[in-house]
Specification:
273 residues; alpha+beta
Length: 273
C-alpha cells in the first residue's frame, strides 16, 4: 500500500492541498504536524513519509484557501443534499468524494465559506481530514467519486446545509415533499436489502475478503487479476478503483441486470417493497 499512499499524496499536492502524516491505523497527527503547525508541501518530504518510511503512515490533507471539505456523518443526509443541489447544477454533485470507515462521506468543493455560517446537525465543514487509502480501525477510506473538485456557485450547497434547516422553504416545499415521498420508497428498498448478499446471490463464485464494513474482491463488471472492487455493507454502496463503476445498491442491481436505474427501482419495489 506504500506506493498507493505515495501516489495519493502526490495527487493531493497537485490539487494544492498540503499534507499531514497521520499515525498508522489512527486519525492522530504526527507530533508537530497540524493545520496551524508543520505541513508537508513538497514532493521530497512526502516521499520520506509516504514512500520511504518504515512506518505505514496514514495520509491527512489540509484544504488551501478557496477549498471546502464537507464532512457528512449521516449517509441519508448526504443523499438528500445530493438530490437537492443537483436540481440547481448537476455538476455540483459530481465532485471528488470519499467514504470514511465510520460510514461518513467527505465531499470536496471549491469556493468560499460565508461569514458566520453554521451547518445543520449531521454535517461539518472541515479544514483537514484523513483521506484514502488510509486505514483506521482495520477499515479503509475509499474513493467514492474520483472526479475533479467542483468549482462554481455554492449557493445551493449552503442553502440546504444551513442551520436552521430550510427543508420546508416556501420556494421548494412542493418539490421536496415529492422527493421525500420517493425517497421513502427507495429507503424502504435499501433498508430491506444487503448489497453483500446481492453480490453473493448474483456472483457466487467471486470470493469476498472482509475488512470491517468493507468487502474486497475481483470486480464482477470487468476482467481483472488483482482485486480492485469493494462493497460497504453499512452504507450498501460499491465501487471499483479500476473500471470506475460505483454507486448504491440500486445502481449495483441496474448493472447486474443491464437496465436503467429507474427500471431497477421499479423491479426492486416489486421484489422487496
Amino acid at each position: 500500500m506504500t506506493l498507493e499512499m505515495y501516489t495519493s499524496a502526490l495527487d493531493w499536492l497537485g490539487r494544492g492541498f498540503s499534507l499531514l502524516p497521520i499515525r498508522p491505523g489512527t486519525k492522530y497527527k504526527a507530533m508537530g504536524y497540524g493545520v496551524h503547525q508543520m505541513r508537508i508541501m513538497d514532493q521530497q518530504i512526502a516521499a520520506q513519509y509516504f514512500r520511504d518510511s518504515s512506518m505505514r503512515w496514514n495520509l491527512g490533507v489540509v484544504a488551501p484557501q478557496g477549498k471546502i471539505i464537507l464532512d457528512f456523518d449521516d449517509w441519508d443526509l448526504y443523499i438528500r443534499w445530493v438530490k437537492f443541489v443537483k436540481r440547481f447544477d448537476d455538476s455540483m454533485v459530481r465532485t471528488y468524494t470519499e467514504l470514511t470507515p465510520g460510514g461518513g462521506v467527505h465531499v470536496f468543493l471549491s469556493g468560499d465559506l460565508p461569514l458566520g455560517y453554521k451547518c445543520r446537525k449531521g454535517v461539518e465543514i472541515k479544514g483537514d481530514v484523513v483521506v484514502a487509502p488510509s486505514v483506521v480501525g482495520g477499515c479503509r477510506y475509499e474513493v467514492f467519486a474520483e472526479l475533479p473538485i467542483y468549482h462554481g456557485s455554492l449557493d445551493a450547497v449552503f442553502y440546504y446545509l444551513k442551520e436552521p434547516c430550510p427543508d420546508r422553504g416556501a420556494l421548494v416545499v412542493s418539490e421536496m415533499r415529492s422527493l421525500l415521498n420517493q425517497d421513502g420508497k427507495i429507503a424502504n428498498i435499501k433498508g430491506r436489502m444487503s448489497i453483500v448478499e446481492m453480490m453473493k446471490k448474483y456472483y457466487p463464485s467471486v470470493k469476498l475478503i472482509r475488512r470491517g464494513y468493507f468487502h474486497n474482491s475481483l470486480c464482477p463488471f470487468h476482467a481483472e487479476k488483482n482485486p480492485s472492487f469493494w462493497l460497504n455493507e453499512k452504507l450498501n454502496t460499491f465501487g471499483c478503483h479500476a473500471c470506475g463503476a460505483r454507486g448504491d445498491i440500486i445502481n449495483f442491481y441496474a448493472l447486474v441486470k443491464n437496465i436503467t436505474n429507474d427500471q431497477a427501482v421499479k423491479d426492486l419495489m416489486m421484489l422487496y417493497a
